[in-house]
Amino acid sequence: DADVTQTPRNRITKTGKRIMLECSQTKGHDRMYWYRQDPGLGLRLIYYSFDVKDINKGEISDGYSVSRQAQAKFSLSLESAIPNQTALYFCATSDFSGQPQHFGDGTRLSIL
Amino acid sequence: AQSVTQPDIHITVSEGASLELRCNYSYGATPYLFWYVQSPGQGLQLLLKYFSGDTLVQGIKGFEAEFKRSQSSFNLRKPSVHWSDAAEYFCAVAPPNNAGNMLTFGGGTRLMVKP
């Protein structure tokens, strides 16, 4: 089984819909991250969490929210999806050393 | 604000040839430096990192990178490329003493390997 699992892997939806992307991990790491990848822009940080009671905004948090339901689970929500949120989304975890070390395989999200 | 530039969007090399991927950063002090690789349909994998000390860093899969303060660069190298190295490579930086939550990524370099 993968260390970091993202569901769904692909999603097509319409403008205005609420969408939740889920991430679960078996690494036992406290730190979890959500990134967005766009061609030519690399990855940009949306939100991160250092433990269950800790949620922090990243570089591009507008239009997104997150929930850390447990140490192993970190969900990303788009309350009202818009087309420019079409992207590849990655969840990642890290241990105390800080930098993201384990990535999921990504969720490809298309908003029409 | 910190920034990372990977000047080459695409690079094609022949299998067995040497490889160098360029990375330049802009930051007030010496940041923490990272290289990640992304294979098709997968997430990123950390290849190597530099925090301090020896400026030549060894990583996984036979890769190494050299930090050059005078050039604000952290180029990735491999002496002999294998077909399985075809992937996208990302350079990233973080403020010193704050490696995790403030990573800034470059735009990536896509490597293609000719047989």
Number of strands of chain B: 12
| Shape by Cα distribution of chain A | globular
Give unreliable regions of chain A as ranges: none
Structural class by sheet pairing and helices of chain B: mainly beta
User: What's the helix-strand series of chain A?
Assistant: EEEEEEEEEEE
Average pLDDT reading of chain A:
92
Strand content of chain A: over 45%
Mean pLDDT, all residues of chain B: 92
Count of strand segments of chain A: 11
Rg calc of chain B: 13 Å
Oligomeric state: heterodimer
Distance between the termini of chain A: 32 Å
Structural description of this entry:
The complex is a heterodimer of chains A (112) and B (115). Chain A has strands at residues 4-7, 10-13, 19-25, 31-38, 42-51, 54-57, 64-70, 73-78, 87-94, 102-103, 107-111. By secondary structure, chain A is an all-beta fold. Chain A contains no helices and 11 strands. The mean pLDDT of chain B is 92. Chain B is mostly beta strands and 115 residues long. Chain B has strands spanning 3-5, 10-14, 19-21, 24-26, 32-38, 44-50, 56-58, 64-68, 73-78, 87-94, 104-105, 109-114. The termini of chain B are far apart. In chain B, strands 2, 5, 6, 10, 11 and 12 form a 6-stranded mixed sheet that branches. Chain B has a 4-stranded antiparallel sheet with strand order 3-9-8-7, with no helix packed on it. The A-B interface holds A 4, 31, 33, 40-45, 48, 50, 56, 58, 90, 92, 94, 97-106 and B 4, 9, 32, 34, 41-46, 49, 90, 92, 94, 98-103, 105-108.
